[in-house]
Amino acid sequence: MTVGERGEHALIEWLRRHLPAPGPDVVVGIGDDAAVLRPPRGTLLVQTTDALVDGVHVDARLLSPDAIGRRAVAVNLSDLAAMGATPDWLLLSLVLPAGLDVQAFEALVTGAGAEARRWGAAVVGGNLTQTSGPLVVDVTATGSVRPRRLLRRDTARAGDELWLTGAAGGAAAGLAMLRAGVSDGDAATVAAYATPTPRLREARALAREGAARAAIDVSDGLADAVRQLASASGLGARLDAAALPIAPGLARLCAARGDDPLPMALASDDYELLVAVPPKAGKRLRAARASFATPFTRIGVLTAAAEIAMTRDGVTVPLPEGFEHFVGTR
Amino acid sequence: MTVGERGEHALIEWLRRHLPAPGPDVVVGIGDDAAVLRPPRGTLLVQTTDALVDGVHVDARLLSPDAIGRRAVAVNLSDLAAMGATPDWLLLSLVLPAGLDVQAFEALVTGAGAEARRWGAAVVGGNLTQTSGPLVVDVTATGSVRPRRLLRRDTARAGDELWLTGAAGGAAAGLAMLRAGVSDGDAATVAAYATPTPRLREARALAREGAARAAIDVSDGLADAVRQLASASGLGARLDAAALPIAPGLARLCAARGDDPLPMALASDDYELLVAVPPKAGKRLRAARASFATPFTRIGVLTAAAEIAMTRDGVTVPLPEGFEHFVGTR
Predict the structure, then answer these.
(1) pTM surpassing 0.90?
(2) Which residues of B are less than 8 Å from A91 in CB distance?
(3) Domains defined along chain A, listed by start
(4) Contact flag B51-A140 (C-beta cutoff 8 Å)
(5) Mean pLDDT across the stretch A200-216?
(6) Nearest to A33 among B93, B126, B153 (CB)
(7) Pairing mode of beta strands B86-97, B122-131
(8) SS3 content of chain A, % helix, strand, coil (to 5)
(9) What is the value of ipTM here, to two decimals?
């Protein structure tokens, strides 16, 4: 049976029954004209929206509906992480081809709900509509942050060090392996692309300990993130190519092909965090890192000079351009 | 030039420069990983999302990009109105065909921004992506309401009267006229479809004076709204067909064609409010109505018996089924 045959009201009724029950902060959940929510006291709200379009950001022939639902939520939570926020509520706006299988719909929503619950957030509403075009999963995430723990991207200073959570290039390697049909046995690399882990815990620990002066997530590739963070703060940046932690999956893939992993590592949409750490934050940094096991690596520095550069084998070159979701198709 | 040629970063830069500047409640607006907002004290948040898909809810051959932007915002504000809320912040998630003209993009965003500003709300963020399919304009609206002034749809009681803002059928008539190419000279009817007016002022006045016990917006037709409100409150309903205020444009259209206007009036997505008014609210109702000029008409009653019926010419019949956006295409 397709979602077009099932009909909107029946699909919404299924959602109401199967999504995880929200907490007491949700005064009115799914089923009214809008959700009604009680914001935590003394916090600012943090709000973002990000859409996955089949054929642009994801390929429904390569990813299961469950993974698409998880990924759609995770990429939004990554934006909240980049602000130091805690996720509270999600809205799920689904634009569905009428011929989509009801089981795929249910798996997608179940994946989204599970990813939300994993991070303590609830799906509190949304919208269903049909389309003659590809599937669109549009998520809005709202979270909260205490004013002093807010992380922005325009507050870095010259001399701040650039640190990266996790590794670079895992998502690009995972997608390449899925496309080539050679992903068996490397679940971690596939997951880096299919179901990235939002770095919520890491960001909150760094913000709490005062070890982060600015942050951005690596959703359009590391080169783009460096450029955006530096530019927003009125600075330049210099990356150290030798320090860059290359994801093991990408290293293997490139070794097998005889390719240089660096270009892929710089353009990969890894949903890691790029963090500006004050130069003398040693003790605060150690305190923050005690809260998480994720690798956290110094990869460069922010500079007063406006150039965005990379040093490799003793040679400094301009950092390659980033990736624009809007132009490219991956 | 198309939006695909212009590219995501340039389009976002245009948005930042051209959208109305937000107020002091917006700590971080467009340009970071997420928006940061200061919620009004002592209020609940009210949040909704609703998407317009070209070819499903709107037809870009019939509506200008400006009207599509306005309508996308208005239908979301209508959901906030139905909860008695005041709109604060909007996110604009645009899924754009790569071949869309940049001027159309700019007009759409300008229309959305103007409609937001008209009601005191600001566009604080969003997302741009491309698609191989039709245009999708997905808006998330967040507002606020004092707990005692919240309007739900599940709190009506048997004996409450059903009242309707405005008239029924204007949107259906406006769309029919646009499709037939006979809309010249009837701007009010076209506007009822193209750029509906969210009934924010009316809802707030009714909630403030305690003249509304429940409310819902008429986004899927009046018959559907009656059914949803009654069902959510565990009640039945009886409409009085003779009392129903038929939109003048629909009356004219149907008179010219020799059609019965009632079926179209019951299925028209008018974005009016259907309100449950306590039976002895006379004084409170008068106080509320002093705040707005919009017609407000008693059209029926909520009943303890579960039937959803309509009385016409002395005969009581079941109310026709409503319209499901998901199944139908208009």
Answers:
(1) yes
(2) 47-49, 140
(3) 3-148 (3.30.1330.10), 152-318 (3.90.650.10)
(4) no
(5) 98
(6) B153
(7) parallel
(8) 35, 30, 35
(9) 0.94
